[in-house]
Amino acid sequence: MAAADVLPPEPEDRVLGASTADQVLERWHGFLAESSQLLKAQLDPPALQRRLPARRQLLNPEAEAGSVESASSRLHLASTPLGRVVYSLAASVQEARRCIRAAPELYRAVAVFGEARGVSPDEDSLQTPPELLVEFAQLLPQLRAMRQLLRRVEAVAVNLLRQLAGQQAMQASQGLQGLTRQPLRPVLDVLSELLLLPVHLDGLALENGRLRRTFASYSWIVTQASTPGSALPEVPQAAALKQELQEAAALVQGDAFQICLANICQGAAQEKLEGIREHFLAYFRGRLEEEPCGPVAASQLWLPREALVPWVCCFVLHVRLFTRGRDEVKLLGEAWKMHKKSPSVVLYGRVVWCLGDFVQSYLPELVAEANLKKELEDLSNLRLKQAERLDDGSFIQELKEAPGCGGEDMASI
């Protein structure tokens, strides 16, 4: 028997960092499957029916009769205000899905940066190895593509908010029927998942110390080379390269989510969003009242751990968009009470942020209003405990078994 028949096949995609993080994200995508199917069923554009080949319709007239009738009814619906609202939301949701599908390939370049070099004894030295500088120069196109992707994320998020506000205003003025019973949940699920993209990028950047050190060295070299009278040789198109590095600084330093929040709020500042505030609150409350299997448990509020990550991201955007009130303070207090003992924000790799750390970074005023400041004073120890619980000791075991890391010194850990 050949060796290839004995050994298990190598996985096509290597697991990035702790496998637990990827499993959490996988469970979250599974959790959204039901909402995605519902959205697809409700927001299916009639253009798909019009694209059916004429030959297929001629060969199968009986099979196509039902679809033709369905297309006719949908075309009639598209001429109504309700239909236009639904189809515009469908287009924005599809664009959001494209952004979500395009993100992993771009993020992988950041996740594996510097791994080909392996562990180096002079890793913490002030001098950056030339190999890393060359690798960072090759990474610049990916960073440029990431900035373009984040701009798309911001535009799609603003468009979703604008359309939701327009739908609510039209419903209030014309009394539209059909969008009254939790119609926005699939759309808000997609918006929450869309907001995860900059958070994942922040996690990769914060985890990869080599990337940040190499970026600092590369920026210093470009700055010195573009200075008149410098001893370094002149870099071609140094001004354009310097400008590109300034734009990439926010991504490398882990500020992508902060910038996305600011740009989304700025883009939606001219919109009248107060009409959808109650929809957001109902969505947050509904998500808090769910069990892993899906049924509502009104007596015991709970939220699946993997669903808490996008919940928090969308909640932060909600607080930035609207004036803080008692409802937001109460929701934050309940979420913290339920999940302060659970690892909640899991990024690629081994970066773990608990719920308190996340809201303290992005919503410090709301933390003070919710009287959580004292509980969050010892947040660093809580974060370490959560990371240890999530990792289940596997990271420490890897350090002990890794060659040249001083396994005998790790015995006390």
Automatic annotation (TrEMBL):
Q: Which InterPro entries match?
A: WASH-4_N, WASH7
- Mind telling me what this protein is named? WASH complex subunit 4 N-terminal domain-containing protein
A Pfam family annotated for this chain is: WASH-4_N
Looking at the UniProt record for this protein, which Gene Ontology cellular component terms does it annotate, in alphabetical order?
A: endosome; WASH complex
> Where on the tree of life does the source sit, at the highest rank?
Eukaryota
What processes in GO biological process is this protein linked to? Answer: endosomal transport; endosome organization
Which species does this protein come from? Answer: Effrenium voratum
What residues does the WASH complex subunit 4 N-terminal domain cover? Answer: 82-383
